[in-house]
Specification:
This protein is mainly β. The protein has helices spanning 2-22, 143-146, and strands at 34-37, 42-46, 52-66, 77-93, 97-104, 116-127, 130-136, 174-182, 186-198, 204-219, 222-234, 244-246, 268-271, 281-295, 298-311, 319-331, 339-340, 343-344, 356-369, 381-393, 398-410, 420-431. The protein has a single domain (34-431), classed as Beta Barrel (Porin). It contains two helices and 22 strands. InterPro entries: Porin_dom_sf, Porin_O/P.
């Protein structure tokens, strides 16, 4: 199926190129003049900015190797896979309307047979600075999630997000979101989503998200960022997979469609259970705090997340989870991380010959209180992850990354009795 998509796309591109050669000459329009840009993808727009579109994408190729707790038997395994392979199309029509269509061909977050729509949305921007968006998109929850996967510092986002994976994932559902700014320092968003999970009557699970950011310092190399998040969903009369699991920063143990460690890949089970029956749980809520500070080439950031899953049946107990991370990064070549209100952006190399070099360290800590999980039922299952890595921004399109990951688990182990593991992951990224 994907071969057919790529073949069709290649044929169309070839036909366009041939046509351009055969009919080269003056291009005219019946309206405003057109501006064409080819740096960072293909962008075409009218000079009056009423209409325009852009075609871009990202390709992330990963290789990882890992052992001990990361595998069932403790022996070393590896994985080579496309983490993301996005084709991205966005545009503006009649000045105030905008659209985004992003499709991921990698299978990594879809299935072994299909890719998935990362986003397919329409926005109305006529109420500036307020924007209204509808369609399929990820609800907002957290600073690292708001930052594009192209420009997050480590290859994988922090493990604390594994505790609340539903908060910032569209799960093939649809939603509506209002987002905007107030002055130069305040940003906020609120959304309501209908997920692809249904209750016993066939009604979809509804989810509410809200995020607020205050950034009195909001320029690249001069950032002070504070944020708060809240998300809630109603699981009444809904059967669902209630497992709280984490890859502990090593995607290769299970890639949801890409090449991975297979049956020998081991993910940490912190709490919950699969196939929970309808009526077992009711309210599922999470809140989070985020903070960041950047001065020149140095930046520090962190987030704290807490989740409460309330039981609706005496046969089940409430589940409580909490997690946090702290990260420091420094650009050896002096460039500052880009920043747009509410999120970090790319590092743009000043020297086109040597590029920009960044080193970073991140510590993740996650734990879940669930007496039915763990070696000792009276204790929480806890995971701790150290991430030490380097990023080379070769130019504005190419980024090469490598990271060493060390994990330690309390009150849980693999079949071999291991409660710690380490691994190494490298990535080659191209953005257009």
């Amino acid at each position: 199926m994907i071969r057919k998509h790529f073949a069709g796309f290649a044929a169309s591109a070839l036909a366009l190129a041939v046509s351009a050669q055969a009919f080269a000459g003056t291009v005219t329009t019946d309206g405003a003049d057109i501006v064409i840009k080819t740096k960072g993808g293909l962008e075409v727009a009218t000079t009056d900015k009423q209409f325009g579109f852009k075609i871009g994408g990202r390709l992330q190729a990963d290789y990882s190797t890992f052992d001990e707790f990361y595998t069932v038997n403790g022996e070393r395994a590896d994985a080579a896979y496309f983490r993301r392979a996005f084709l991205e199309i966005s545009g503006v029509a009649f000045t105030d309307w905008a659209y985004v269509i992003n499709y991921d061909f990698s299978h990594n977050a879809g299935s072994s047979e299909d890719g998935y729509f990362d986003e397919a949305s329409i926005a109305y921007n006529g109420f500036k600075p307020l924007s209204i968006k509808v369609g399929r998109f990820d609800p907002e929850f957290g600073l690292e999630k708001a930052t594009s996967s192209k420009w997050v510092t480590a290859q994988e986002r922090n493990a604390a997000y594994d505790l609340v994976d539903w908060t910032n994932s569209h799960q093939n559902g649809m939603g509506i979101q209002a987002l905007g700014t107030a002055g130069d320092s305040l940003y906020g968003s609120v959304s309501l989503s209908a997920k692809d999970q249904n209750d016993v009557d066939g009604e979809s699970v509804k989810q509410f998200n809200v995020r607020g950011v205050f950034a009195p310092m909001h320029e690249a190399g001069n950032v002070l960022h504070l944020g708060v998040n809240y998300a809630q969903r109603d699981l009444s009369d809904t059967a669902f997979d209630g497992r709280i699991r984490s890859r502990l920063g090593m995607r290769g143990v299970s890639t949801s469609g890409g090449n991975d460690a297979g049956t020998n890949g081991n993910r940490l089970l912190l709490g919950g259970a699969n196939n929970l029956p309808a009526g077992s749980y009711d309210d599922d809520s999470a809140w989070g705090l985020e903070a960041a500070w950047a001065m020149g080439p140095f930046s520090i950031q962190g987030e704290y997340i807490k989740r409460d899953l309330e039981a609706d049946d005496d046969a089940f107990e409430d589940i409580k989870a909490k997690g946090y991370y702290a990260q420091v990064a420094y650009t050896l070549t002096g460039e500052a991380r880009g920043y747009k209100l509410g999120k970090f952006d790319a590092i743009k190399p000043e020297n086109k010959q040597t590029g920009a070099w960044e080193v970073f360290y991140r510590y993740d800590n996650i734990s879940v209180e669930d007496d039915t999980v763990g070696i000792d039922g009276s204790k929480d299952v806890e995971g701790k992850v150290h991430n030490l890595g380097v990023n080379w921004y070769v130019n504005e399109a190419v980024k090469l990354s490598g990271a060493y990951v060390k994990a330690k688990v309390d009150n849980q182990e693999n079949a071999n009795g291991d409660d710690s593991g380490d691994g190494f992951v490298v990535r080659a990224q191209y953005v257009f």
